[in-house]
Design goal:
By secondary structure, the protein is of the alpha/beta class. It contains 13 helices and 9 strands. GO terms for molecular function: oxidoreductase activity, acting on paired donors, with incorporation or reduction of molecular oxygen.
């Protein structure tokens, strides 16, 4: 089984943003040593508790301090940007770190309405233009605009020997079909969706048309996971991330991820208890054997080539340990 890492660069209540970004590097290095396939950074804007507003800068830092693990965006929020500039950025990364760069593409805003306005003009119009934006980006990455088209005389330099591998990220049939139509890989974000993942992935596989000869369909499914030596400890560790989400919903998450002690002291009202239970069901929590079985079942049900794990804990050591325990079960045996 292929496993990968999705990192949101979370900031705990006892950390600075610099601490969180340093921990992101440690996580990428740990993942590389353990045999994880890729490490992706998310893009979020003005969200307290996350330091991942500029993934391409973080990727430069990660790439310079790792050697083999694939690195990329999860995702570039394309409606905010011109495809040409995105291609320049990721071609540069692919030049610096040959055959290691993924460019994941998404259509979300990544923040509030105010942030969206601060980042870009005409965001909603660009969301509607997403199909053409994706096509333009792919042409820039491949440096193959047809001669009759507007951008045929320009290139997104530098042109790397191996182009970045494009992925489309999403949680809907629309995103799956857009990936299939363009013949690119698809990542389904189960960790942020209640949609029918297996059905959406089937839509992608059935509609897939290769962009290049011999290029296969590829599927990643991304899930939230917290693993510890015992089920009890894993459940305890998970409290911090879940309570933090509840705090953010009330505008109270500005201090970052609470400690386990702080999370235990948080008083839930009846509505929050229901939300807490639903959120917890959407996370794979358990000891190594329990998590292993759930991931094997998830891969089989979704026909995924790879599973990407997103883990948020208060303690950076607990987070790295979760990835280590899972790797010991599913990677070290391969």
């Amino acid at each position: 089984m292929k496993l990968s890492i999705l990192d949101q660069s979370p900031i705990s209540s006892n950390q600075t943003a610099k601490d969180a970004l340093d921990e992101s590097l440690k996580l990428a290095q740990t993942g590389e040593a353990l045999g994880y396939t890729r490490y992706w950074v998310t893009e979020h804007h003005d969200l307290p508790g996350l330091a991942s507003s500029v993934p391409e800068v973080i990727l430069s830092y990660i790439g310079a301090n790792t050697k083999t693990i694939r690195i990329g965006s999860g995702a570039v929020l394309l409606p905010h940007y011109k495809p040409f500039k995105v291609a320049e950025i990721y071609n540069t990364l692919a030049t610096l770190f040959p055959n290691r760069i993924d460019v994941g593409i998404g259509r979300a805003s990544g923040g509030s309405a105010e942030v969206t306005n601060a980042l870009s003009d005409n965001f909603l119009q660009n969301v509607y233009k997403m199909p053409s934006l994706v096509k333009d980006l792919l042409h820039f990455l491949d440096d193959d605009f047809p001669a009759e088209q507007e951008y045929s005389k320009i290139s997104a330099t530098p042109i790397p020997e191996v182009s970045p591998l494009p992925w489309l990220l999403g949680t809907s049939k629309k995103s799956a079909l857009l990936a299939a139509e363009n013949g690119i890989a698809y990542a389904f974000g189960q960790f942020m969706s209640n949609n029918d993942g297996p059905a959406i992935i089937r839509e992608y596989l059935d509609a897939f048309t290769p962009r290049k000869q011999g290029q296969p369909a590829q599927v990643i499914i991304t899930v939230s996971v917290i693993c510890a030596e015992t089920t009890e400890k894993a459940n305890e560790i998970s409290l911090s991330a879940i309570i933090w989400e509840l705090q953010k919903a009330k505008g109270e998450g500005g201090r970052g991820i609470p400690s386990i002690k702080e999370a235990m002291q948080y008083k839930l009202d009846d509505r929050e208890k229901d939300t807490f239970d639903k959120m917890k069901k959407n996370i794979i929590i358990g000891n190594p054997e329990e998590v292993k079985q759930k991931l094997i079942e998830l891969q089989a049900t979704n026909k995924a080539d790879e599973i990407m794990l997103s883990t948020i804990t208060y303690s950076a050591e607990d987070r790295r340990n979760s990835y280590k325990l899972i790797a010991n079960e599913l990677l070290m045996e391969d």
